[in-house]
Each structure stands twice: as C-alpha cells, then as structure tokens.
Amino acid sequence: MKVVKNAQELPSACAFVPTMGALHAGHGSLFTVASQYSDDVVASIYVNPLQFENKEDLEKYPRTPERDIELAEEYGVTHLWFPTYEEIYPEGFPTLTAGPIAALYEGSSRPGHFDGVVTVVRRLFDLVKPKVAIFGEKDFQQLALIREIAAEVEIVAAPIIRENDGLAMSSRNVRLDPKGRIAAKIISQALRDSESEGELRSILASEPALTVDYADYIDEKTFLAPTEESEFTRAIVAGWINGIRLLDNMAVKSEKK
Ligand code: PAF
Asked: Which CATH class is domain 2-158?
C-alpha cells in the first residue's frame, strides 16, 4: 500500500472509498466491495469541517491515523491519501447545495450538513477521478444525495455492517460509555423486530437511555411517507445515547408496509 501526499500520485479510473478515518470493519467491507471493481483501491481520510455544524462534534471526532494506515493495508487498500485542507479547499473553491431531500431528517437536525458532504465529495471526485465510488447504506440519505451530484462516477451502495449485538458499525460508537453501548442495541433490535412504524417507535421508547430524533418509514426515492406507488420502503432511525448521535436503517419488506 502507498500512502500518497497528493492527488496527482493516485491511479486514474480507480475504485474510491472516501472516509473520515477512525477505520473499522464497516469501512473494511467498503474496501472489499471496491476491490471487486478495480485493482486500484483508493481511500481518502479527511475529516471535513464543512459537514460539521457543531464545533464540539468536529473536535471530538475520533482521529487514529496510525491505526488507520495499518487497517487500510489489511483491508486491501492500495493507495491511501490524507488530503490537506488547502488541497480540498483552495481559495474560491466551489460550494454545492445538496438537493431538496437534504432539508429532511439528518438535514433538518443538522442544518448545512449535506451541503458540506456534497461539496467535499464533489471536490474529492474532481481530484481523484474515480471510475466507481463506494458508500455505506448506513448513511442512507447521504448516499441518495451523492447520487445526484456525480453523474460520471458509478456510485455503489454497500450494506450496513453490524456488531455481534446488531449495532450498526460507526466511528462514533467508541464514544459510548459501557451502559450506553449496551443500550444502543435497541435500535437494530427495533428495526428487525417491528412490523409497523408504530411498533418501531414503541420498541425504541422502551429504552430510557435513547432519545429518539426520528423513527419513520419512508419511500426510498423521495424520503417522504410511503404511498401506493412506492417501490421500496425503508425504516430510518436516528437518536442520541450519551449525547452521541446514532443512525440506522433497514429495508421494510413489502408485507410490513
Ligand atoms: O460518510 C462519511 O464518512 C463522510 O460523510 C464522507 C462521505 C467521507 C464525506 O466527508
């Protein structure tokens, strides 16, 4: 694996996985998917200040560069790139505004978040020029918005990777205290065991450590309430435990709609 200093050293037409580091097995699965598309698996590690509306969240975001280099190598990354702020955001860089879906759910709780995400992803794509880019389904809304800004890159969705108790893997999980970590399994349990939106909410309400932000069924295309025309419905959940924001989602089988 090569650790590269700037984007010019990257192979073109690669399979690309942008990350914010603090790598875990969830990222590992994205790298594995990437390796099915190209022999050149490029990963970037850049904690993007533009997508943090909360300064404390940005400061506390875990940063583990040495461990990330080891793990990236183990997971089959061929080129690892740590961009600098100046490289991503030169003077006068173009900022993007994410599509209307950005106003809902994560966007409503985190104003400006998705503008920051699409701006950095567009910059990363312009610099890396990948053939394919892989994103996790865990950030389901992010995935939908990225599809809108990158016609020339094939966007591949990779399934959520879970801990043994079902908790969706996330770099933020390490910030949960031991009790919070145990409580956090309620989210995937509720998604798995519920048969309706009402049931999803009532299972989540049974865990006092969890403050629910939203627990909804949505049409995967519009992010609005599912209708007769909806092809795919997804249950999406966000909430806080120990002040740590946790996200998860699951496809709703048609008989549950
Ligand atoms: O999902 C993430 O880790 C980030 O939002 C991304 C896509 C790397 C952009 O900073």
From this structure: alpha beta
